Amino acid sequence: MAKVTLDKSSLEVDLSSDELLRYSRQINLAQVGKEGQRRLKEARVLCIGAGGLGSPATLYLAAAGVGTLGIIDQDTVDLSNLHRQLLHGTNDVGRAKTDSARARLLLINPTIAIETYTTRLNASNAIDLIRNYDIVVDGSDNLPTRYLSSDVCVWERKPNIYGSVHQFEGQASLFAPHLGGPCYRCLFPEPPPPEAIPSCAEAGVLGVVPALIGIIQALEAIKLIIGTGDNLLGRLLHIDALTLRFREFKIRRDPNCPVCGDSPAITEPVDYEQFCNRSKGSSVRGITAVQLNEMISQGEKVALVDVREPFEFEIARIPNSQLIPLGTIPERLAEIPRTATTVVMCKTGVRSARAIEFLRGEGFENLLNLEGGLDAWREAVDSTLRKY
Ligand code: ZN
Prior knowledge:
The chain is α/β, with parallel strands linked by helices and 388 residues long.
């Protein structure tokens, strides 16, 4: 029965009569009791991301009485988030997720403290942030953040409750080498090359799948705080929502792990922030959103080819771009200019790099990849572009 060490003695806090009533149904459980409830009140949990996983996790952690919830998220609420991110409502579209989360969580439980950070977890802030909490619930939706949060939790000896989803599947585990289990890198020592990842943000997901995983993450945090039950240490839980089958895999700490192993090669935070935008190892020539915008505004002749799917093009596009979905390129070669400079784009720059590699094999030499895709264009040039 692992139990996190809380900063202060849990005997120092008292529960008000309101709190005793609010939590009475869980205090009634022998495994919780007043002592468990005090421990929850003393606990500080950092949730990375207020999205699909962070929504259910923080809603239930707040309701259960976790005294201090930290939430870090740099995004604003988007209409396309709402089918799975129930922390936020339709009225919150456009608002910082951290603000929307704080308001919603305080409605559920005004007795707790919410600490928000409207930024991205990165190599320069990760240690200070994580050091300040007892447990990290990793609800991030991208590999760079996941590696960073796992690495820092190893160094700071904080349990890292992992969750991830892909389409109808999800998985969860507890990474805590200091309690005897593995870390994320024991399973996946190095990030895969960007082109090997299905996408950083483009895959579909059914809203209830992250909900299932986020709830399990909250449950694991609560059990760790009160120190009861068996947890996911050394176990990777996999859920297939389509067949509704739960499977479990044994996972072990790897003595050769680059972070938690016996002679670690990585001892300080690595910034993978540009990870999704980088075509590492690819020789495709790129152009940044800012450079492309300059070319266009200076009237330079440039053709724009968008290789996304029609529905994506309908949601958002760069003016004067031509839609040629990736899968249709082989039969539409004649529509792609052979002489004029042509910038190829997609949502994040991964599919367009693949398109350029294919087209070069067909003799095209004038192609540039829009680095970071339309997401980067929205960040750097046109914030009115609809996000999806
Ligand atoms: Zn490890």
